[in-house]
Amino acid sequence: MNRLLIILLATTLVVSCKKGGSLFENPKAQNTGVEFTNTLTETDDLSILDYLYFYNGGGVSIGDINNDGLPDIFFTGNQVKNKLYLNKGNLKFEDISSSAGVEGNSSWNTGTTMADVNGDGLLDIYVCAVVGINGFNGFNELFINNGDNTFTESAAKYGLDFDSYSSNAAFFDYDLDGDLDLYLLNHAVHTQNSFGRFDLRYERRYETGDKLLRNDNGRFTNVSEDAGIYGGINGYGLGLAIADFNQDGYPDIYVGNDFHEDDYYYLNNGDGTFTESLKEYFGHTSRFSMGNDVADINNDGRPDFLSLDMLPQDEVALKSSEGDDNIQTQKMRIDRFGYHYQFTRNMLFVNQPDGNFMETALMSGIAATDWSWSALFGDYDLDGKQDVFISNGIPKRPNDLDFIKFVSSEQIQQKMDNTKLVDQKALDLMPSGNVHNYVFKGSEELQFEDMSEKWIIKDTLISGATAMGDLDGDGDLD
């Protein structure tokens, strides 16, 4: 049986100048030409029961690929082709995906980023993929910009054609030698047997482990182990933030990990190596860390950041969903297994002069935004302060307590291996996670005001990856 599910429509929010109306308006796709839809087709052999990240969505990046001063938009599709939309001005976009050669060949694409990888002044496009499970094939693809609105896939030439479980990637110059290096964020495959001691992160595995790639004259070298980057079997990377957190002139790395694994805070030693230092500088973190973003939210010159989780604001969803561990389980995780303190909610980390991070999400009013995927800081109302947009929603909630009780039965576990009828019953038990997106207005007092009702259309689209830019050239962020 095939079940068709539209998980993510390409939604463009542009700042509106209408008095008394929303700050953002959502122009119709038929008017802009941006009609990408990340359509998922569930089958008897592929659903969230087979792949827990089935609903994580694709990726989106924004950049000016032809240097005409207009930001263009690129989308990756999980089961559909990638799309590249060329900005023609006045919020009109042309789909050049096929002629540009960027539709891709992998079965399951995830995150994407734009960067001038070869230093020729043109933005290239890197696409991550999940390969080697659930029949997914292909490899991560690097589309090098030819300067004529076409691209040449060149991942193998640059040493970036990984066939692993990739979530996202970030290009940055970690060794300050003038070229772009790469951090590749991967994820493990979560099973009921995944939980174990923290030292599983030291058991390096190609498919699941993160990778740090050094740019050596145009070809990338995997220096992960020598640089002190974990590449284990229990990392579930969903969030990646790069910034000079300790203000020593070198970019550092924060990795947000889903499930029980700790987040990673890599401080750049300036000699090509990093020191993982989470416990030294953070009192606690998100439990199911999702997306994150960096900004100086209090204008003190130091980078702060927001890490997202899945704490519902709605009382019914809150009471019917799996929450934090009880005190006995948490004590076992910390004392026996060696993990750090984790709690199921968003975390807002404010950078302190001594290098420690003060966590203020509850005080700041942004701790609970439900099934949150992507955070995007920006001064949306042009008042000089950082606001934040949070994308939200999942088609079905796999942390629903009734669903968990059903699938935890040993008898049901055995039946699920033998009949798809039980699979369908399990899927039907999962309630919808359609939740509206959030947007908050920031202030220098570390307070955020929920402006979701006033600034955006408060609908229940399933929203995943986000990117921002001045798409209509009017001086504000869309």
Brief summary:
By secondary structure, the protein is an alpha+beta fold.
Molecular structure report:
The radius of gyration is 22 Å and the shape is globular. The model has no long low-confidence stretch (mean pLDDT 91). A hairpin with an 8-residue loop joins strand 27 and strand 28. Helices cover 14% and strands 30% of the residues. It is built from 12 helices and 30 strands.
Number of helices: 12
What structural category do the secondary elements indicate?
alpha+beta
Largest sheet: 4 strands, antiparallel
Overall pLDDT level: 91
Binned strand content: 25-35%
How many distinct folded domains? 1
Report the CATH C-level class: Mainly Beta
CATH topology: Methylamine Dehydrogenase, Chain H
Q: How many strands in all?
A: 30
Key words describing this protein structure:
globular, alpha+beta, 4-stranded antiparallel sheet, Methylamine Dehydrogenase, Chain H, 478 residues
